[in-house]
């Protein structure tokens, strides 16, 4: 994981020492998103209607694989910490929506296709890291939980609107991943989530673990995104 924990990350961790963890995470995200970015051809085409069905499915498959690992870790954390586990937030869970979206784009055999065709080295490395650390360690779990859910909740409505306009889908068919029907006010929900993070009671060392693992997650996400970039020509041949 050393690739993600470099001097800019260390600087953010040092400069924000003593501030609320949610503030430190937001500061880190500005570094992580810049350093984790790959060439944006795939992402631009995704939002502008420039991918074929396999390209759209490839993005959904990556999400499925990372969320499968994360939501299994959530189950493990709840089992060990009790039913009142503070970060058991089923309104955020994405696997049912992703299964519906993948079936829309790939058909009934979508599950086999995810593992046979779309489980690239980058995304499997990311999922393996979540599986390795998030089921037992609360700081590691919160790092990955924060990285995934808060980002997708933040951008979900905008992405859904652009995607549906570009591909002229029938309502939310094929893009339910970006919809959080149980969260009426995403902005207010994110404020409550950040308060939950701040109230988790982490020690200074545990906070540093959270921050470094978030940095690693940004880097791993960039590696997984590069897998999509590397197959861009295949995914952009015919519009959906």
TrEMBL record:
A GO molecular function held by the record: metal ion binding
Residues annotated for heme b binding in this entry: 26, 33, 146, 194
Coiled coil, from the record: none
Entry keyword Metal-binding: yes
Keywords on record: Heme, Iron, Metal-binding
GO terms classed as biological process: heme catabolic process; heme oxidation; response to oxidative stress
SUPFAM superfamilies tied to this protein: Heme oxygenase-like (SSF48613)
The protein, known as: Heme oxygenase
Organism of provenance: Leucobacter luti
């Amino acid at each position: 994981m050393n690739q993600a924990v470099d001097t800019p990350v260390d600087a953010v961790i040092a400069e924000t020492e003593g501030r609320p963890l949610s503030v430190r995470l937001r500061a880190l995200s500005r570094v992580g998103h810049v350093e984790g970015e790959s060439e944006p051809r795939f992402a631009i085409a995704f939002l502008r209607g420039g991918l074929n069905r396999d390209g759209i499915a490839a993005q959904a498959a990556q999400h499925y694989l990372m969320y499968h690992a994360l939501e299994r870790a959530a189950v493990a954390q709840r089992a060990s910490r009790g039913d009142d586990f503070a970060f058991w937030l089923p309104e955020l869970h994405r696997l049912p929506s992703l299964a519906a979206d993948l079936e829309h784009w790939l058909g009934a055999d979508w599950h086999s296709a995810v593992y046979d065709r779309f489980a690239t080295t980058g995304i499997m490395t990311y999922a393996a890291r979540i599986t390795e650390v998030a089921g037992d360690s609360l700081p590691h779990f919160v790092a990955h939980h924060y990285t995934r859910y808060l980002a997708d909740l933040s951008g979900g409505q905008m992405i859904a609107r652009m995607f549906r306009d570009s591909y002229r889908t029938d309502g939310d068919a094929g893009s339910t991943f970006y919809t959080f029907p149980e969260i009426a006010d995403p902005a207010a929900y994110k404020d409550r989530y950040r308060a939950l993070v701040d109230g988790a009671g982490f020690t200074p060392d545990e906070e540093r673990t959270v921050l470094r693992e978030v940095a690693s997650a940004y880097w791993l996400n960039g590696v997984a995104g590069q897998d999509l970039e590397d197959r861009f020509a295949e995914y952009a041949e015919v519009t959906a």
